[in-house]
Amino acid sequence: MEELILKLKQQIIEALNLEEMTPEDIDTDAPLFVDGLGLDSIDALELVILLEREYGIRLEDPKANKEIFKSVRTMAEFIEKNRKM
């Protein structure tokens, strides 16, 4: 799981062009939206594309996305349960 979390942090930095950040700068359990990283709805779309492209996961339920994208850890847990590649 820790390896997946590190990889996910790197992918988030690349996908969202957070060039000034390193994986160590992202708190695994901090909120991704509003507080924490302060991501917005455009960033959320980028994260959905990341999950589809890198892990073969299609997100069907928009209401579930809020829970999935709560933190890097919740994303990693979701990927572990649902990855297709």
Overall spatial form: globular
Oligomeric state of the chains present here = single chain
Question: pLDDT under 50 segments (min length 5)?
Answer: none
CATH topology category name: Non-ribosomal Peptide Synthetase Peptidyl Carrier Protein, Chain A
CATH superfamily: ACP-like
Q: What gyration radius follows from the Cα positions, in whole Å?
A: 12 Å
Q: How many structurally independent domains?
A: 1
Largest sheet: none
How much of the sequence lies in strands comes to under 5%
Q: What structural class is derived from the secondary structure elements?
A: mainly alpha
Would you identify the CATH architecture?
Answer: Orthogonal Bundle
Number of helices: 4
Structural overview:
The chain has helices at 2-15, 41-55, 62-68, 72-82. It is mostly helical and 85 residues long. α1 packs across α4. It is built from 4 helices and no strands. It has one domain: Orthogonal Bundle (Non-ribosomal Peptide Synthetase Peptidyl Carrier Protein, Chain A), CATH 1.10.1200.10. Helix content is 55%, strand content 0%.
Index terms:
mainly alpha, 85 residues, 0% strand
Question: Can you describe this structure in just a few lines?
Answer:
The chain has 85 residues and is mainly α. The chain has helices at 2-15, 41-55, 62-68, 72-82.
